[in-house]
Amino acid sequence: MSRSIEWGPAQLMRMFRGSSGRISVTKFSSQYCEIKSIFDSLRPPAITPAMKAGTEMHQVLEESVMGPPVEFTEEAAMEFSAEDAHALRLGDVVSRWRHLVDTSKAREISVYGTIRGIQLKGVIDEAAIDEKSRIHLVDTKTYAGDLAVYKQRLAYHQLLVYYELMGQMIKGKVDIDQLAHEKAKKCDFLVPLHRDIQAAWGYGTLQEMMDGWKDSLNKLSSGSMAEEVRADFIDRRNHNTDQIEFKHDVDTAEQLFAFRSELLSGQRPPLPLSRSVGSCRFCPHFADCSERQH
Ligand code: SF4
């Protein structure tokens, strides 16, 4: 890596954190090259056609489970207050949890939690509840064909983090009041929301939305996490090309959490790309990286 870039814990946390102050699960469980993930945070890579196709595929899958997305007219948007603007974000999150409770399946579910003192956030591709009230997690990868070991390991590691965060959510370890009030410092939670927002999600106020979220979590709290987690690898035509089932493993999860938190707390430097994973020659940061090796 360029010697002009520093990677002390304060810089790392700043680079990786979003505006919410939390690190995303994707960044926390990244396995490809830790130095590249720092470069990417400093200089976000351009959206490639493959990334765009992947996003579109996620949208197709989402609509197949969740139905068409909620949309509002321009006229309504012109009338939105600060509370309505916040309700757009919160309503989307809360409605997915409610969908999971009501239909036993949902996609793109936001989860939050803390691992080794690091605040995290993520979006689980899919969760489904079986007849024994166990929650099964699925991570969808929109690439197929070349399932290199590191790609499988990345999917597994992400699922381990999602498993932990989902467990914290349903066991009441996450402060929902704090989450709901994030970015809403000037909002009055008792002010009636715009009629179109009320019609779309059925909540009259932000307070009702927040209470609805808690109610969904409360209903899930009597269930448990299924040990089996799954990664679906699909191609761009939505053909399920591979499904790999893993088992949750406490020891592996703890090793992963320790390894990643060591980096983020400054106990070890970021690692370069391993030769077994790939070649630096294809990295967009090749020219700037003093750690490039092969
Ligand atoms: S050149 Fe190699 S070591 Fe450097 S960021 Fe890219 S992949 Fe990582």
TrEMBL record:
Gene3D superfamilies with a match to the protein in the record: 3.90.320.10
Source organism superkingdom: Eukaryota
Keywords annotated in UniProt: 4Fe-4S, Exonuclease, Hydrolase, Iron, Iron-sulfur, Metal-binding, Nuclease
GO cellular component labels: nucleus
Cofactor(s) this protein cannot do without: Mg(2+); [4Fe-4S] cluster
Gene Ontology biological process terms from the UniProt entry: interstrand cross-link repair
Subunit note: Monomer.
Protein name: Exonuclease V, mitochondrial
